[in-house]
Write a structure and sequence with these properties.
With 214 residues, the protein is mostly helical. The chain has a domain of 149 residues: Ferritin (Up-down Bundle), CATH 1.20.1260.10. Helix content is 71%, strand content 0%. The chain contains eight helices and no strands.
Length: 214
């Protein structure tokens, strides 16, 4: 009688046995898909927020914030030879690019404009890097560029968490409150990975951004 080979374990069991970085990636992907589904359905189910509302401001500013993270990740991903850093950079690039698509769709459905940039002082408050610092990621020697990427992205994530925290108390729409919670939890988890990679390179984090005052 031939042996019976069990099929693959259910997805949660496989995820639990996966390496830490892979398991976290699966959890992040699941969370991203849930948020994207909620954002995709919301315009048809909920009234559009007024111009200047907390919802509109949060989506507009987070879209600009995400765009810089995607830009930085796109610069370092093809240069680094570190598999852990490459995997994390690609995940940041892809998940935030997906979220940007939905953020743009929300603003279009609400009849509200996208913002090309933020005032420099406010951008610094929410952890965004200067244009010159981002450009260095493409030109510095690879090891220096890796260290700079980790420093900039840690501060960038810290800024996103600080930005999302007060909005959670102001937002009226459950879909955008869920987005703010998702941004905070996801980027706190990624910050731990970024810090570990920076420590391995003997680097020190940059001073955290100042809390923005809206």
């Amino acid at each position: 009688m031939s042996a019976v080979h069990p099929g693959p374990a259910p997805w949660p069991q496989r995820l639990a046995r996966a390496p830490g970085w892979l398991a976290l990636g699966g959890v992040v992907l699941s969370g991203v898909l849930s948020v994207l589904l909620a954002l995709a359905l919301a315009p048809a189910l909920l009234p559009a927020p007024a111009s200047g509302s907390p919802e509109g401001r949060f989506v507009q500013e987070m879209l600009v914030h995400h765009a810089q993270a995607v830009n930085m990740a796109r610069r370092i991903a093809p240069r680094t030879q570190d598999p852990a850093l490459k995997t994390l950079a690609v995940r940041i690039r892809d998940t935030q690019a997906q979220e940007m698509t939905q953020l743009r769709a929300l603003l279009q459905a609400w009849g509200q404009p996208t913002l090309g940039t933020l005032p420099p002082y406010h951008a610094a408050q929410i952890g965004m890097a200067s244009v010159q610092a981002v450009a260095q990621l493409s030109h510095l020697p690879v090891l220096e560029a890796e260290r700079l990427f980790l420093q900039l992205m840690i501060r960038h994530h810290q800024g996103a968490v600080q930005m999302a925290r007060p909005f959670q108390g102001w937002l009226q729409r459950p879909d955008i409150r869920g987005l703010a919670r998702h941004v905070g939890s996801t980027q706190r988890g990624e910050t731990e990975q970024l810090q570990a990679l920076l420590t391995r390179r003997g680097g020190q984090p940059l001073p955290p951004p100042l809390s923005p005052h809206h």
